Amino acid sequence: MMIDRYSIALFLVFSFLVGALDASAGDADPLYRACVAECEKTGCVGGRCFPQCKFPSDIVANDSPWYMQEPLYLKWKQWDCQSDCRYNCMVDREKEREAVGNGPVKYHGKWPFKRVVGIQELASVAFSALNLAMHFHGWLTFSILLYYNLPLRQGKKLCYEFASLWNIYGLLAMNSWLWSAVFHSRDVDLTEKLDYSSAVALLGYSLILAILRCFNVRVEAARVMVAAPFLAFVTTHILYLNFYTFDYGWNMKVCVVMGVAQLLIWAIWAGVTRHPSRWKCWVVVIGGGLAMLLEIYDFPPYQGFFDAHAIWHATTIPLTYLWWSFIKDDAKFRTSILLRKAD
């Protein structure tokens, strides 16, 4: 749905304002710092030793014998010596804090999650994958509706004028949730850039689509004139993030403006239109706004898995289903209008 990813940006703004007081309480702990420093020297934490600490990637050459290189699965997940030291020191420190009645704190800006088979945030990964599946289901059923259930115009052209736009939206949404799942699985520089870039691309395109659909822009020349400046800006912004500097503050501002703009457009449109399925649009808009409360609350992960962000991902699953239902209803509605005019 349109508001899937922009609410992340709103949460980032909130975190930027209040998170600095709390985000690094764990990694500022002297006991945690001492544990990490000792682990990086010895390769061990509390009797647990990590073989990758013997194979630092900056020392072992890539052309050295295979048995001297870092294992392939570690390269793929990039769980190097420092990452394992930080994780295991965090686990031990949290046990000590729990023993004296203290609650969990963030380490390097993140809550202490339990790692499962190398996956960093299992619940967020699972819910991101379900959102991906829901978008795939919606996009697939939308395509089946267009090409097999709705009548075609002469020349076998689709009656629904916005079909190609929604098809592109479906592909961008699936791509965005794919990289969301990968990023929550392991947040390294590459996965972070892919996740943020995909979210920005989806946000920018969703804003264009909101304008074109809500203002009923059907002439191709007019569509190009509307889309061109937005596409140029979004492309430039993505290139700026990836090849100049990854400016979190600027990216937050851009995402919030694009997200709020499209949300207002859809809300106003749903309020003035006589579309038979406008209530679905209202539910998605209001439901997405209420789901943001989970992001603002930002509680620590229950049992090390389910934090506010993961639950927010869960709430977008039914909203995504309803959003694609609205899109399909819109295709039927617009087709029926066109056929009545043709008669």
What would the keywords be for this entry?
single chain; 343 residues; 2 domains; two-stranded antiparallel sheet; elongated
> Could you state the order of secondary-structure elements as H and E?
HHEEHHHHHHHHH
Q: Briefly, what CATH class of the largest domain?
A: Mainly Alpha
Estimate the mean pLDDT confidence: 84
Category by helix and strand content: mainly alpha
Radius of gyration, whole Å: 24 Å
Beta strand count: 2
Helix content, binned percent: 55-70%
Q: Summarize the main sheet.
A: 2 strands, antiparallel
Enumerate the strands of the largest sheet in spatial order, edge to edge or round the barrel.
Answer: 1-2
Number of helices: 11
Q: Which regions are unreliable across 5 or more consecutive residues at pLDDT < 50?
A: 8-23, 56-62
CATH architecture of the largest domain: Up-down Bundle
Oligomer: single chain
Organism: Hibiscus syriacus
Pfam families: Per1
Keywords: Golgi apparatus, GPI-anchor biosynthesis, Membrane, Signal, Transmembrane, Transmembrane helix
Subcellular location: Endomembrane system; Golgi apparatus membrane
Structure description:
Helix 7 packs parallel to helix 9. A hairpin with a 2-residue loop joins strand 1 (44-45) and strand 2. The chain has helices spanning 6-18, 30-42, 72-77, 81-99, 122-149, 163-185, 189-214, 220-243, 248-272, 278-297, 308-342; strands at 44-45, 48-49. The chain has a two-stranded antiparallel sheet. It is elongated and about 80 Å long. The protein is 68% helix and 1% strand. It contains eleven helices and two strands; from the N terminus they run H-H-E-E-H-H-H-H-H-H-H-H-H. The chain is an all-alpha fold. The protein has two domains: 6-19 and 119-342, Rhopdopsin 7-helix transmembrane proteins; 24-99, no CATH class. It starts with 5 loop residues before the first helix and ends with a helix. InterPro entries: Per1-like (IPR007217). One of its GO terms (cellular component) is Golgi membrane. This is Post-GPI attachment to proteins factor 3.
